[in-house]
Design a protein that fits this description.
By secondary structure, the protein is an all-alpha fold. Helix content is 62%, strand content 1%. It starts with a helix and ends with a helix.
Length: 279
Amino acid sequence: MFYALIMTPYVLVFPQIYRTCDFVDTSNCQLENPHFANLDMTVDVICTIDIVIKFFKVSGENRNFWSISRSYMSSTLLVDLIATLPGLFKGPSADLSIYSLKLFRLVHFQRLNGPLVYFMTWALSNQSKNERADKISFFSLLLYVFYLVHCLACIWISVGMQTNCDDETAKVNEYGLCNSSWIYANDFDKDDLLTLYAFAFYYIFEVITTVGYGDYCGTTTNEHVYLLFLEFCSISLFAMLMGSVSSIAGSDTIDEMIENKYDALYMWIKKIEKSAPIG
C-alpha cells in the first residue's frame, strides 16, 4: 500500500517512467520498462489478497464472518475493488484512464505511517506509552505533510503541462497572445523527470509554508487559481499543525503523569525479572 500511495500520483503525471509517451499527449503510450509495470501488477495482486483477508479480519464487535463482511461492504469494499480490479485485469497495457482509478486508494492514506509506527514502537520500546505515542504522533504528522506536498506537487506538474505556446495547437487569448505554463516558460521540459519533480516539490513546499521567495510564479490563469487555493488551504493546514504540535509538547495531565510513572515502574520490574538468576 505504501508503494501504491506514493507512486500512483507520480505515474499519472510521468507515465514515461515505464511507457514511451509524448511529454504532453500521453493517450498513446507503448510499454517500454516492464520492471515498473510488473511491480504495479504485483501491488495489485497484493491489494487483491488484502481485500480477501479483510473479510476474515476480526475487529471490535465484528467477531464472525457475516458481521465482518457487512462491516467491510458498508465501508471501503467498493472503493478497494474499483482501485484494484480494473488494473489487475487490464494489466500493464491499461491506459491512464484505467490507471487513474488507483487514486481511490488514497482513502487509505492513514496506512502510510504503518512502517513508521512499527519502527518507532520497536526503537522507543524503553520509553513510556505516552511518550512513545506523542513521538509517533508527531513524526506521523510530518509524514502526512510530506505526502500531501507530494500529491500537490504532482498536481502542480499536471497543471504545468497544459499550455505550450511553441505548439501550433496552443490557444491564444483575444489579443492573440499566449502564456506558456510554468514548465515551458522556465524550460523545465528540457530537464529530466526527477529534476522537474524535485523543483515542483520544493515550490509547493515554499507556497504552503508561505515563505514566498518570489523566484518562480504561475504564468497561466489555471496556475494562479491553483496557487490561490493552496495559499488559502495552507493557512488552515498550519493552524492545525501548530495545534497538534502544541498538544504533543504541552504539559501532561495528572492522569498522564500517573500513567507514565506506572509505565516506568512496570519497565523497572521487568528489568529486575530479566536480571534475576533463574532458580
